[in-house]
Each structure stands twice: as C-alpha cells, then as structure tokens.
Amino acid sequence: MARALGSSAPPRPSLRQPMYRFPKAPRPLAGGVPGRAGPSPLRRILACLPLLVALAGPAFGAVGRPEDRLADPGLESRAEQIGRELRCMVCQNQSIEDSDADLARDLRRIVRERVQAGDDDAAVMRFVHDRYGDFVLLRPPFNPVTALLWAMPVIAFGGGLAVILTRRRRAGAVEPPPLTEAERRRLADLDGGGA
Amino acid sequence: MSETPATPPPARGRRWMLYAPLGLAAAAGAGFWVMLRGLQTGEYDPRGVPSALLGRQPPDFTLPPLGTLPPVTVADLRPPLPAPILVNFWASWCVPCIVEHPQLMRLTRDGVTILGINYKDRPADAQAFLQRHGNPFRKLGTDEPGRVAIDWGLYGVPETYLIDRQGLIRWRFAGPITPEVLDKDLRPLLRRYA
C-alpha cells in the first residue's frame, strides 16, 4: 500500500548519483589491439570507484541529519541504544535508528528530546510504547498475546522430542510375526540343502 | 521371489493419513484465497497494527486552524457526545486519501461528524485539495510538525479513529476507507456506538 509517510512527503532536494556511461566504442579484442590507445572500460570503472565510494559515504554512517544528533556523546549513544530497540512503524523491519522514513526521524527526535530532558531509558521506551503498543518494541514483552510467540521454541523442541520418543518406543515394541508353516518348511529345506 | 511376503496393506486407521497432505494443501489454498480477497477489498492489511489507544481517551492536543474552518480541539472529543465522532488524519500529498475521500463525503452527507487533522502538509495544498474534492470535515486542524499524530500513534495517512459517545477511542483504521470497509466495518460500528 502506498501510504508510507516518507516517500510522498513534501519533496526535499535529493542528491542524484551521476550515472556511469559505458563508452560506445566496440570492445577491444582479447589481448587488445596495438595502436588503439585509451583505457579499457574496466579501467575506467575502476577509476570511478573512489568517486562512487565517496558518494556512497553517507550510507555507511548513521541515518539522520547531523544536526538532529545530540551534542553530548554520552546522551547521543544512549538515545541511539534506545532507538535500536524501537521499530519503525513504516518500514516495520527496521529500527528507527536505521530507517530513513519521516516518522522514524520524528521519533528519533522525540527520543533525543526526552533523553536530554533527563528521562531514563525505561521512561523513554514507555513514552513510545504508550502510543504505539507492543509492536513498536523490537523485543516484544511477554504477555498473553505474545505467549505463543515466546513459547514457540519450547513447543517446537518438545513436539519434536515427543515424536522421536513415540516412534522409537513403537519401533522397539513391534515384534516380527511368527513364521508360517510354509516358511518354516522352506527354512528347513534351505538349512538341509546347505549341510 | 514369489514367497517374499508383500508389505501389508496400511491399517484401516492409518489410511486417512494418505489424504492428509492433500487436505493440508487444500486448506492452505483456501486460506491463501481468503487472504488475497481480503487484500483486494482492504479488509486485510498485513501491515495493520492494532492501536494502543483503543478503549482510551484521545490524547490532549491543540492544533492551529486551517482556512476558515473552526479548529479541532480535544474538547470536541470529550463526553458527553451526542453521537460517535470520526477523526481522520489526511494529507493532500497522500494518494490513498483521494481514494477514501468520496466515502468521507458520503458519511458527512449522512450526518456523521468527521473532524479532520491535516498531517504534514502545506496549508495552501490542503485547501486546494478540499476545494477540488469537497470538504467532509466539520472542523479542521493542521499538524504540520506531526507531533499530535505521534501522540495518537499514527503511522501513516490516511488513518481514521472512531470515538464513541463516552469519548473513548473504539476503532482505528489505518489505510483508506474503501466502500467495502465503509459498509462492512464502519457503518455497523457507527450503529453500535450510536
């Protein structure tokens, strides 16, 4: 559904990455043709790599604008730790620290405001939890709704163990049926023939 | 060898297990079909999350007005209310909001009170939207920073909340109110809380 908050919000300027254009010239034959100077396409791509890496630089750092971060590194790292525990409700599989959605940015700001205002970690989490419910916590709490979720490893392990044990017991309990008269005679024949 | 005893036929009690995989596949197929239908009509949203505010009073807020309409305040949502009220978060940049707009217009014509909260929008854009598609809102506030929306637990637009006559949030729908959602969910709820 196209109801993401981030994508269609009022447009903001974005950096467009320059596209690398492959040269139109035909590929040189293997080994190269002497006399046709100029770097090979591969060389050119390699030459562009540092530029591309430099452009991708922001992707390696934390999301979010630097001006949103707290000046105090201690508080900032606390805020980041809290943010990593909170789900971005728009992307749903990222924490608000990892997501670039508008809502995640707003929540990052709120977390930082509360941290700066002196709230402890639990209070900040409670603030967000009160508004968005259990789903916003990336580590769901144990309650009647999530009981099945938390119990699932035990259920799966116990179930498997039960299946294995019952099959084993049954396999041990089954005795081969006694030989019929015909089978006994045939066996005696075979034994006799061998002697 | 003709004398090798053939494997015994499966015991009668176990024979049904032969059909178990077929039955499982049929059940899974039926479940999948129901899910797809729900996706199509908007009844089933895999990303849908229940609101944490159900059964509670709406959070306190004050919002600046938009245009000439009176602003929404939390006092509008405090009991006693003569009838249930809908609170709709929307934006002019939100495409599903266009999808749901005719249903909001129909509800207003039927006498349902809808209060609008314009989310992260430019006032001029919002007013142009209402001029073009009609205004279903009795009152309208603008939440340009999106803070009030977070107090409500909003995670996308459009989102619609039903407040009953006791002033408690009874229903939250995240996504556009399609005609199916209107007839199957919202109308019965409005009747129940009337």
UniProtKB/TrEMBL annotation, chain B:
Its main location: other. Pfam families: Redoxin. The keyword Membrane applies. GO terms for molecular function: disulfide oxidoreductase activity. Keywords: Cytochrome c-type biogenesis, Disulfide bond, Membrane, Redox-active center, Transmembrane, Transmembrane helix. The chain crosses the membrane at residues 16-36. One of its GO terms (cellular component) is outer membrane-bounded periplasmic space. Residues 52-191 form the Thioredoxin domain. It is found in: Cell envelope. GO terms for biological process: cytochrome complex assembly. Belongs to the thioredoxin family. DsbE subfamily. This is DsbE family thiol:disulfide interchange protein.
